[in-house]
Amino acid sequence: MSHKKQTLGEFIIENQSSFKYSSGELSSLINSIRLAAKVVNHEVNKAGLVDIIGAAGDMNIQGEDQQKLDVYANEKFIQTLTNRNIVCGIASEEEDDFISINSQDENHQNKYIVLIDPLDGSSNIDVNVSVGTIFSIYRRVTPVGTPVTLEDFLQKGSEQVAAGYVVYGTSTMLVYTTGDGVNGFTLNPAIGSFYLSHPDMQFPENGSIYSVNEGNYIHFPQGIKNYIKYCQQEENDRPYTSRYIGSLVSDFHRNMIKGGVYLYPQSSKNPDGKLRLLYECNPMAFLAEQANGKASDGFVRTMDVEPTELHQRVPFICGSKNMVEKAEEFMRKGQ
Ligand code: AHG
Ligand code: MN
Ligand code: MN
Ligand code: MN
């Protein structure tokens, strides 16, 4: 990689003035996510050599068996954000409840809250397939000077001030938005710095990839079944190609670069779908919209869904605009 490329650190400083709430705090926050991402990346890369593969022995609030790397990534992100004293609260897929940060921030002066999926795609850890981290950042809504409350975390996705993900893939990338487009940075592991490798990322308006766990087909609503059949028909640019990694981050990343749609619909087994609104869907929806893509539950824009609980699940259709709209059309006609 050329040494002339801009580093993430340089990029953050240069673009600080475009933040909606111009302050150094959001920059420090993104900086600390960058740091935690490097620490987790280091461990992900050694998986197989060190004792970090396999189940941790506990179950999380989602009813999933926690993997050792789920627990490790969760600890590292929470530790880094807490130690650097820049957030007032954190909620995580791996924690039962939100965490109010007052160990360092006794007077509750910090303004930002973070929601994270510390390790996305846990089922891929043991088999050396890409995993990721997803983060979502909001300004608190309760007054500064008081401890955070659930209200601070149950904000609509449209209130996000920043969101992004790290993909630990063939190379490690950090991709994020502060509401002014989407930029991707690749880690040069020899130097330990992220470099701007994918400026102004955009979903192609049309695509030819559909990503869905077709093993659940029988349980899907009729609208989704019909859309899948449409993807498989021989007509114009179809049939489309099916690609499903099973890590939302990696499936989204590929579809953003190549053009495609990701679907995790409701089913008779999971009436609200599987993906979590606050840790997975909203941050990906913000990125998608910032990259000229689209995200909805089939009927309602994801970022307009009113959250009612921390670990809420929603159906999720996300990706290239025309593909999402086609799937929505099938959902409306559906039943
Ligand atoms: P997590 O590993 O954070 O629990 O998320 C897993 C999610 C998502 O990454 C992925 O797209 C989806 O679950 C895969 O689910 P299925 O195995 O049911 O297809
Ligand atoms: Mn999980
Ligand atoms: Mn996840
Ligand atoms: Mn996870």
Could you characterize what this model shows?
- Its main location: cytoplasm.
- Homotetramer.
- It catalyses: beta-D-fructose 1,6-bisphosphate + H2O = beta-D-fructose 6-phosphate + phosphate.
- Its cofactor is Mg(2+).
- The chain is an alpha+beta fold.
- 30% of the residues lie in helices and 24% in strands.
- It is built from 8 helices and 15 strands.
- The strands form 3 sheets. It has an 8-stranded mixed sheet with strand order 4-3-5-6-7-8-9-10, with helices on both faces. Strands 12-11-13-15-14 form a 5-stranded mixed sheet, with helices on both faces.
- α5 links the parallel β11 and β12.
- The protein is globular and about 60 Å long.
- The chain starts with 7 loop residues before the first helix and ends with a helix.
- The model has no long low-confidence stretch (mean pLDDT 94).
- The chain binds 2,5-anhydro-1,6-di-O-phosphono-D-glucitol and manganese (II) ion (3 copies).
- 2,5-anhydro-1,6-di-O-phosphono-D-glucitol binds next to β5.
- The site of 2,5-anhydro-1,6-di-O-phosphono-D-glucitol has 12 residues, from β5.
